[in-house]
Design goal:
The protein is an alpha+beta fold. 36% of the residues lie in helices and 20% in strands. A 6-stranded antiparallel β-sheet has the order 1-2-3-4-6-5. A hairpin with a 5-residue loop joins strand 1 and strand 2. Helix 1 packs parallel to helix 3. This is MmcQ/YjbR family DNA-binding protein. It comes from Streptomyces cavernicola. GO terms for molecular function: DNA binding.
Length: 135
């Protein structure tokens, strides 16, 4: 429930489309399922989260949170406007929250690359082999 003095956030249509593209990509990965713990969308494989997608209801600005083990990708993600290590101690394990609505935010293609990297960190060898066979 949104408090009266905290009106809903309205993301621009282009940002909502970007978020939907990233969400669709994540859910097309082998074995991926969407769940809604804590009221936000997450994509899981092997019952483990590989991307936090947040909410699209306007109660919070659009963002994605991914686990990036590749040092170069991790460093690049952190240079995005508004990006930060994920909260709740997840940042220490390589999770990065990347806002989608900041000026200069990454495009959907790069975000999907990071989602795939995060997926590869979590997925079993079987699921990764299936993904590789698609390419």
């Amino acid at each position: 429930m949104v408090e009266p003095n905290n009106p809903p956030h309205k993301a621009p249509a282009a940002m909502r489309r970007k978020w939907q593209r990233v969400r669709s990509f994540a859910l097309e990965l082998p074995g991926a399922v969407e769940e809604f713990p804590w009221g936000e969308s997450v994509a899981k494989v092997n019952r483990k989260v590989f991307v936090f997608l947040g909410v699209e209801d306007g109660s919070w600005p659009l963002a994605v949170t991914v686990k990036l083990r590749d040092e170069e990708a991790h460093a690049h993600a952190l240079t995005c406007p508004g990006a930060e290590p994920a909260g709740y101690g997840l940042g220490k394990a390589g999770w990065v929250r990347v806002p989608l609505e900041e000026q200069g935010a990454p495009d959907a293609e790069l975000l999907c690359d990071w989602v795939e990297e995060s997926y590869r960190v979590i997925a079993t060898k079987k699921w990764i082999a299936e993904l590789d066979a698609r390419h």
